Amino acid sequence: MSPTIDVGLSRVNEQILLAIALIAASTLLFAACDVGAKFIQNEASAEKIAWWRNLVYVIVAVPFALRREGKAVFRPRHPWLNVLRGLTAICGSILFLLGLRHQQIPDATAISFVAPVFVMALSIVFLGEIVGVRRWLAALVGFIGVLIIVQPGTSSFHYASIFTLVAAFVGAFSTILTRKAARDRAETMMVWTSVIGLSVTTVLVWPEIGQTSWHEFAFGMAGGVFFAFGQVCCVFAYRMAPASLLAPFSYMQMISATGLSFVVWGIVPGPATTVGASLVVASGLYSLHRERLRARQRLTNPGL
After folding, report:
1. Of 51, 87, 183, 196, which shows the fewest CB atoms inside 10 Å?
2. Does residue 102 belong to any structural domain of this protein?
3. Which residues are listed as membrane-spanning (predicted)?
4. Which residues of the chain fall below pLDDT 70?
């Protein structure tokens, strides 16, 4: 192997490692964002917390996108898909925050990771994909994991988990819209999602904006910064390495959520959360594995 090829491979490997590091950083930032939300949940509504996130997101995303892509970010190839994606994204965010008010962060995070199962089911309807028996079995395992965490019919059940579960479904629909608008660049989607999110939440919380304490301001802005830079990390990461390679590392958010909850509040997940989350993560990872195999088959045999 020539020195030139060696250098090229070395650079590719460095890029992949950096991309993985950025995904890991994003999971920590998103978990920190949820910690910030917990600190102000008694003085700010879920809509207000979402407003803080999108306020900072716009401040970060718009200049970032303009610098990279210019004014083209305001002219998506699929405007209505981007509008719908922005609406589903903010709805999912508010629903998750409603659930988070009455759940521990590791529990809510674990339930949210059932989203890939919903994506799989929705892809049949909206993308015309064919799902085999193995992926359906993986989906069943994921749902069993969620049921173990939620514990319906027991004294441990809380209605807030329904909000988190619906948020995962709405988030999955947003992912489907992202796939359908695949010709639009990530920066374009960032701008439209952030602007639509800020517009919707501003209408919802307008009377509350003037009733903001310094405590809420500090944690609201901090959460927004974590959220915005978590998104930026993801954009850079997916530019450096294939999505199929990076997707499994997003499950590191379970570790981030658990670690931060322990550091801040001394919370250790119970047996139900541990077992349920393990099943959800295993289900998601297996589904990703099957998707990678199908992608390879499509490359080698376009007729599939």
Report:
1. 183
2. yes
3. 16-37, 49-67, 79-98, 110-128, 157-177, 189-206, 218-238, 245-265, 271-288
4. 1-12, 244, 294-304
